[in-house]
Structures are given as structure tokens and as C-alpha cells.
Amino acid sequence: MRAPVLLLLVLFGLGFGPDARGQQRPKKAGIPAVVPRLNVDGRPTTNVLPPDTTRRPGDSLRVSAAPQGDIQTTVRYAAKDSIRFEVQNKQAILYDKATVDYGEMSLKAARITVDYSNNLLTAEGIRDTTGKVRDKPVFKDGATLYAASRINYNFKTRKGRITDAVTSEGEGFVHAETIKKNELNEIFGRNGRYTTCNLEHPHFFINATRMKVIPKEKVVTGPFNLIIGDIPTPLGFLFGYFPMPAQTRASGLIIPTFGQTADRGFSLRNGGYYWVPNEYIGLRLTGDVYSGNAATFGGFGVTAEMQYLKRYTYDGRVNFSYSQRPSDQILRPVNNAVNTDQAYRRPRTPQTFWLTWAHSPTPRPGGGRFSASVQAGSTDHNQQNSFDTRRYLTPSFSSTISYQKQVRNSPINYALTLSQSQNTATGAMDFTLPDVTVGVARQYPYEWLGLEPRGRFYEQFALSYTLNGQNRLSNAQTTRTLESGLPLLGGTTQTTRIPVRLDNLGPLLRNGQTAVSHRFDISLGSYPVLKHLSLQPTVTYDENWYGKRLNYEYVPAAEAIRIDTVRGFNRVYQYSAGLSMGTNIYGVLPIKGKSIQAIRHKLSPNVSYRYSPDFSRNDNYYVLNPNLGRLANSSGQLYNTEDPRYPGDRTRLLNPLSFSRYQGFLGSIPSGQRVSRASFSVQNSVEMKVRDLKDTTGITPFKKVSLIDDLTFSTGYDFAADSLRLSGLFGGFHTQIARKLDVRINANFEFYQRDSTGRFVNKYLLNQAKPRLMRLSQATLTLSYQFNPAVGQKKSTVPRTVAPTNDPVLGSPQQVNPYEDYIDFAIPWELSANFTTLYSDPGPLPNRPGRLRPSALAAAGLSLSGSIKLTEKFQLRYTTGYDVKNKEVSFTTLDIVRDLHCWQITGNWRPLGNTRGYFVTIAAKSALLQDLKLNRNRTFLNR
Predict the structure, then answer these.
(1) What is the DSSP letter of 599?
(2) At 302, is the pLDDT very low, low, confident or very high (cuts 50, 70, 90)?
(3) Most buried among 28, 264, 576, 894, by the most CB within 10 A?
(4) Which has the closest alpha carbon to 836: 731, 741, 732, 743?
(5) Any stretches that span the bilayer, and where are they (predicted)?
(6) Is 348 helix (H, G, I), strand (E, B) or coil?
(7) For the residues of 154-169, what is the DSSP string, one character each?
(8) What DSSP letter does each residue of 527-551 carry, written as one string?
(9) DSSP class of 647
(10) Is residue 882 within 8 Å of residue 900, measured between CB atoms?
(11) Beta carbons of 867 and 877 less than 8 angstroms apart
(12) How far apart are CA 604 and CA 330, in angstroms?
């Protein structure tokens, strides 16, 4: 009893005991136990007394005494109304918004009683004139928070009894009629409810007569059942176990989901284990198993996913999936006439796999950069196992693994890349293993000689170098054969796919291409011409190294050419030179209006010329043999027997042909003729200076608005060609209207005439009977529109009081206007529309009666995507389109999301195509109860 007596003496000494007349002095509202002094600016300060020079200094051998008794630290308390002390009963009673703080313990309530003789705190609320209990006790012990109607707590034993309690544990809430708390912070509840809904009266809960909560670990209950909307359900068990999500990652089981598929039977999917070996890695192992039928096993699937992260260094994710299935579906549809999709008719691949890897480094100055983006696997894996729309529809995938580094204090940089691409529709696969690039940044020769810069012309001379080595493998093998089976030109072309397996490594390597290329770019500077033009000469040198080349031999018996591959080192080089001259011309049209000040036009003309010699006479590059021109088959003479540009000219018959020894090889191969070509281009842009209505300062009253972003015309002229020297005219137009509508138009025009077969002849359109300058051969129009309106300003006049997540001081939602909740007349929405059309000149009219002319409209399509927010918590997302050319609706999907406070409804509907079907899921939003859900689906896997 020593400690309470000492505490009372201390309290009385501070002015909480009776005064000199023996009367109780009430503690007024909000006055703390210790009143600090305030500075003139209102900030609290500590009373510091001047030192007493009469007191002797303390003994250096004296040791401070440890706290004695049951009270281990200071008890601080306050009340808004008053504090009454009962000395005889050793109690203090705090009235109206009372607070008590004792170490890590904090208590707030309408009335708190402190019993020092029993070390007991008692807290309860108070009823107002309407009969409603206000200021219910809120108790905090460390990080745990409780709300209740009455609390009894022993601050010595740290045990307590809480009536009508609500507390939060992780993402969940524990409601109980009575809660007992021990010194280990473990909670024992009677007639308890466990839920993740944060309302005072939750939408759903797990009801149990007995419950034990171990903070940050688990909730264990006796027999329980699930109650939804105050309706008891038969869902339950003899005991319950609900693990708490730890503050750090933890290992644990993953519960599978039950389902049914048409091709593999009943299933248990996505069941497995999540393993955390250390703080950097998380591994998720899941599997699928399918029942099949009495005669056939349904198969299985395995998925391994690893996430890794090292702060300030890198992060990534690796996912590998393997699936084994029957070669045919097990549950066939009853009415085969209804299900006639290609997905049902095409053969199935029994075993498929898919690998995804994404690795992103954290950039560091002077360091190397390793990155990876891999998407590769079996051709049919996504079509058979994936619900992801993009994966299902994407016809091709590519993968890249690279390492790049800039050598410090050096102009040298290098990169090592491994890449792969595959087409899931055709099965074609290409590998580049590896691709090595070494580059030297632009160097100035005068610096090598140690010359000082003096503004001379030679100081602009610069040289850069790039080394690139590639080894490319492909499973596509093209052969030309006749009846003899020899690989010949002039026969039937066949393309076969080499299966990508380890036992086919030899054929894949023989089908590969290897090359090492060197490129030197020499810049000779920029020089002014006629004050306003800029002239830039350049020289380029390329050299490729190959380990093989092609040899051609005419076979008289087969009247064809045999192609042989000859191994050995081969060096192929080429060089070219060019000039480029251009300028910028500006034109301004002043208007000086109230809203428009001026319009500016920018014109950027450019003329360039490039020359390269003829390498066709070099035997190391091309094979020139008169016998190679004598090719024929059953359909007549081929291969340059008559030049189509000169019909009827027999002098050009049976000209000898030249064949490249490096046809289809990597790198830039020298052309078979001299290059002497001039190119012309004109680029335009138009801007308007308008008044800025948002500017209120007057500093920048005008702003620039683009009228035409780009209007480009380009063409060329080949001086080395013997005919058709003038290239077609290309035109491109791009602008934006109101920053919402994006307009792009590209067009190609031709200057030459065509014969009855559609081939060009060396005559201009100006020379025909009805002369014209040019003819439109191809054009594309793309319109893109995106609109995201702001949310309407209309708001509900009735406030919605929903307690924040994980707050045990729960509130009841007030009655709101149902029309405000479910019909929002200012509907927010977004729309993205894209329309593309392609025009192609069908050519001359057919010369045979009854033959229809092909349509000029090559393609046209409209695609739409966006979302509509029907209410504050109900949203629709959609994607659809229409093929105007084929008059078909393209891929269409509709997604719905409905927020039900602590639940959520998600759904997807695909009405058309091989993937048509739907799925709907009603699930608890909390990750703690992620397996508490109801699924209903009819997809392409089980319809």
C-alpha cells in the first residue's frame, strides 16, 4: 500500500487535495496534471529555478533509487468538467471527455474512475437526453485500439475486461459481447463476430460463440457460421482459423478454386504455397489438376513465379507456366451445330509452356545496365490457358536481354543483346544469339594532332565508328525443288518449320546467319551557302565479314539453277558519299485582332544527293553467267526473258542475270547497280498566336496554338536508272482539333502510266490522251478522338458518414437520398475512338468480260474503348470495334465493377468470337478473406 499513499501525497502536493478549509478543489475543464508556463509567443516552456548556492553538491557516490511499488511511471489525466477525489476510498473520478495516460496505455471516455487501491481503471459512456450513449470508451494499449460500452483495466497486471467491444486486427475487425485481455495482449472473446467490414453494424461477419485473437498472428474460433446481411447461412465449420497478414512478408498456403472446363473436366486451380526465403525474394508455386473422364486423364498445370527486389539496385519478376492436357476435349457439347468455332475444331497441343521475365535495374552513373523483357513459349499456350485479352489476341511476341555500358572517361560504349521473336499464328521463330555492338563516339582528328581550335574549316571534320556482330537463327527453312529434289531456282518454293528442340540444334545452326559489320561515318561539317542555306557533306564506309557465301550452277538437264553454300571467310565492302542542303523559311501574317494577333508559317525545304558505285561486276559479290538467263518452266519463259518496262523489245530477251552471293544475309549488301539519287522534301507547320484568356497578370497575354503540326511532301529522282527515274510523291498531314481529335493523312502518288496488266511503263501521265500530273495509288486516313470530361459539380447535400478503414470507432451510415446514390445525372465518362481506312488503287479495268474490278477500299475499321461511371460506385468499361470492309464486329468485351463497401462485384462479358462467354465474381475486398467469394462463369474453356 506504499505506492498509492505516495501517489496521493504527490497529487495533494500538486494541489489536487483539500484546501486549508478542508474543501475539495475541483479540477476545471482541460487543466492538465502539470501546468507548464507559456512564453510570450504562446509556446510552452519549462520552469527553471535559479541555482541554490546554499545547498551542498550531491554525493558522487550516491546512486539514484529505482521506482518502488506498483506504479512504474507517471499517471497523467484530465477532464473537461471536473475531477473528484475520494481520499477514503482512494479513488479519482473524471467527468466529461476524460482522458488517462499511463505509459503506452491511453483511455478516453465520458467518465473514468481510477481506483488506486485495486490498480483498476473503469471507463464508460453516458446517455444524453435522447437516450443515445455518447463518448463511449476508447482504449489504446500500445498499437491495439478498442472501442466498447464499458472497460475495466488493471494497469498493474495489464489485464482487462471489455464489454460490447470492437477492435481492429490487421485488416479485420473483432466484435464481441465480452472481451478479456491478458498481459500478453491476447484477446479472448465470447459471442464474437469477425469481419473486414468497418461499419458498426457490418454487412457480413463470421459468428462464433468463442474466439481467441493473437495480435499480428491469427484468429482462432470454435464452431462458426457465415452471416450476410443479418441472414444466417449454412456456411461454416467446427472451428475457424484466420491468419493475420504480417507486417512483413510471410510464407503460407494458397487455397485452390474449384471449376469445370470442356476440354479437361473438373478442376482445382491455383492452389499451392507462397514461400519467402529472405527479404529479397518471394516465390509463389501453384498448380492445377483436372479430373478428365474414365478413359482419359484431364491433365495438370504448374506455375512458378518469383519476385525479387534489391533496393536501389534492381527488381524483377519471373513466371514460368507448364500445362499438359488431352489432345481433344473431354466434355463435348450436346449440340455440335451451336459450337462450331475454330477453337473447337483445331488440333490441341498436349504440352505447352510459357516464360515471362521482366528485369529493371536502377540507373547508376558510370555503371552498366542489365535489363530483360522476355515473353516466349509454345505457340498455343495463350490460346489454351490464358484469360488475358492482350495475350490471347497478340499474334507475335518478342524477347530481349541486354547489357549496356559506357566506359568511364572514354568515348567507347558497348552492348550485348540476346533477342527472340515468334509468331504464334505461323509458328515462325527467330533468335539472335548474340548481338554485340561496340561504338566509338564522334571524334575530331585535329584533337588527335594536338592542334588548338582556331575556327578553321577542318575543325568540323568528325569520325564515328560502330562494330556490330550478329548470329541469327531461324526455324523457317525455304527450299526450291523440282522433281529431282535438288534445291533449284525456278522450281516450287516450299517453306518448312524446323521444330525448336535440342535434338534439332544441328539443322538450326546450319540454317543460321552470322555477320560482323563495320561502319565508319565521316562528317565534313556544315557550311553556309548564299547566307541562308546550310550544306552538309558526308562519307560512309561499310564492311561486312561472312563465314560463307552462295554459289550458283546451271543444270541443263533440269533447266534450273542449283544453289550451293561454300564455307570460308568473305569480306564485302561498300562506300558512298552524299550532300544535304536545307534551310528554314518563316512567314508571318499580322492580324492584330482582339483574339488573334498573328499567324506564322514555317517552311523547311531540303535537297539531298547520294552516290554509290556499281558493285555488280565484282565476282566476289555477284555471279554473272549467260547460262543463268536461260530458265523456263511449263508456264513459259521467266527470269528477265523480256524486260516488262520495254514490252515488245526483243533485243532485251535472254539477257544474262546476276545473282548475289549473299542473298538474304545479314547486314547491308551492295546493290547490283550504281546509285545516283537526289531526294527532295518540304516540311510545313502553321501556328497562330491567340489571346490567353487564363492569363490575369498581363505578362504573357498571348499563347501559341498549332493549326498544322506537320505537312510534308517528298520525292526523288534516280539518275542511274535506265527508266522510271522519278519516284512517287509522298504526302503526309497531321493536326489536332481542339486538342481532342487527332487527324493523320498519308498518301502516295505516281507519275507514270500503266499497261493493261497493271505494270508501269516509262511514260508520264502528262503524255497520255487525257493528261494529268499524277495519280493517287495509296492513302490512309486515321482519326483518333479522346474525351475525358470533368466530373460534374453536382454533389449530394446529405453527408455520407462511413468510418475509415481499420478504425474501431465505427459509425452508422446516415440515410441518404437513393437517387443521389444510384442515379448521377452528371455522369462522368471517357471515350477513346479510332477510325482507320486504307485506299488502294485497283489498277486498270479488266480486259476480260465478266471479270469484276477489285474494290479500291482495302481496309476500314472503327475501334472504341472507354468507361462509363453510372454511379459513384458502379462503373462499366468497354472495348469494341467494327470492320467496315468485311462488315464484321471486331473483338468486343464489357467489364463491370460494383463497389459494395466491403464486397465487390466484377464481371466480364465477351459476346462474340472464339472467346465468347462471361464470368461474374462476388468477393470480399479484403485480402485477408480473398477466398470468400462466389464465381459464376461460362468461358471458352467450359461453355
Answers:
(1) E
(2) very high
(3) 264
(4) 743
(5) none
(6) coil
(7) ETTTTEEEEEEEEEEE
(8) EEETTTEEEEEEEEEEEEEEEEEEE
(9) T
(10) no
(11) yes
(12) 67
Whether the upstream peptide bond of residue 789 has omega within 30° of 0, thus cis, is: no
Phi, psi (degrees; rounded to nearest 5) at 381: -65, -45
Strands (DSSP E) contained in 583-649 are 585-590, 596-612, 622-625, 632-633, 636-637
Q: Measured between alpha carbons, how far is 457 from 528 in angstroms, rounded to an integer?
A: 12
Q: Which residues contact 261 (CB under 8 A, 6 or more apart)?
A: 267, 290, 298, 331, 941, 942
Taking the C-alpha atoms of residue 776 and residue 868, their distance in angstroms, rounded to an integer, is 41
Helix, strand, coil tally for the chain in percent (to 5)? 5, 55, 40
Please report the pLDDT score of residue 584 as a whole number.
93
Q: Report the 10 Å Cβ neighbour count for 748.
A: 18
Distance CA 179, CA 188 (A): 6
Cα 876 to Cα 882: distance, rounded to the nearest angstrom: 20
Half-sphere exposure of 314 (CA within 13 A, CB side): 15
**Cell triple for residue 262?**
470442356
| Residue 168, C-alpha cell as written in the block | 481492429
Q: How many CB atoms lie within 10 A of CB 910?
A: 20
Residue 329 amino acid letter: Q
Please report, to the nearest 10 degrees, the dihedral formed by the alpha carbons of residues 869, 872, 873, 878 taken in order.
Answer: 0
Position 582 scores a pLDDT of 94
**What is the largest distance, in Å, between two alpha-carbon atoms of the chain?**
139
Query: What is d(CA 495, CA 636) in angstroms, rounded to the nearest whole number?
Result: 24
- Report pLDDT digits (tens) over 241-270: 877 765 567 788 888 877 777 667 788 888
Listed as own residue / partner, the contacts of 709-712 with beta carbons closer than 8 Å and 24 or more positions apart are 709/685, 709/734, 709/735, 709/736, 710/683, 710/684, 710/685, 710/734, 710/735, 711/683, 711/684, 711/685, 711/686, 712/681, 712/682, 712/683, 712/684
Phi, psi dihedral angles at 508 (to 5 degrees): -65, -40
* CA count, 13 A, side-chain hemisphere, 311: 1
Per domain, the residue ranges of the chain are 2-37+70-243, 252-348
Characterize 410-438 residue by residue with b for buried, 16 or more Cβ atoms within 10 angstroms of its Cβ, and e for exposed. Answer: eeeeebbbbbbbbebeeebbbbbebbebe
The pLDDT, as a whole number, for residue 937 is 73
Q: Which fold has domain 2-37+70-243?
A: lipopolysaccharide transport protein A fold (2.60.450)
445-480 tens-digit pLDDT? 888 888 888 878 888 889 999 999 998 888 777 665
How many Å apart are CA 99 and CA 77, to the nearest integer? 5
Closest CA to 608 of 690, 667, 676: 676
3-class state of residue 391 by DSSP: helix
Bridge partners (DSSP) of residue 24 are 18
Count the alpha carbons within 13 Å of 427 in the hemisphere toward its beta carbon.
11
Cell (9 digits) for 230: 443479418
DSSP-assigned letter for residue 125: -
* 574 grid coordinates: 561498300
CA distance 181 to 153: 9
CA distance 909 to 940: 11
Total residues found in the chain within this entry? 943
Provide the whole-model pTM: 0.64
Residues 6 or more apart whose Cβ sits within 8 Å of residue 40: none
Mean pLDDT of the 141-162 span: 81
- Cell 453494424 sits at which residue? 201
**pLDDT-based confidence at 804, cuts 50/70/90?**
very low
Residue that the C-alpha cell 564455307 belongs to: 567
User: Which residue type sits at 161?
Assistant: R
Does position 54 have pLDDT exceeding 60, yes or no? no
Place of cell 558505285: 613
The helix (H) or strand (E) run that includes residue 389 is helix 389-393
CA neighbor of 274 nearest in space, from 288, 260, 285: 285
H or E segment and range at residue 780: strand 775-787
pLDDT reported for residue 701: 76
Cell numbers 463476430: residue:
193
How large is the average pLDDT for residues 507-527?
Answer: 86
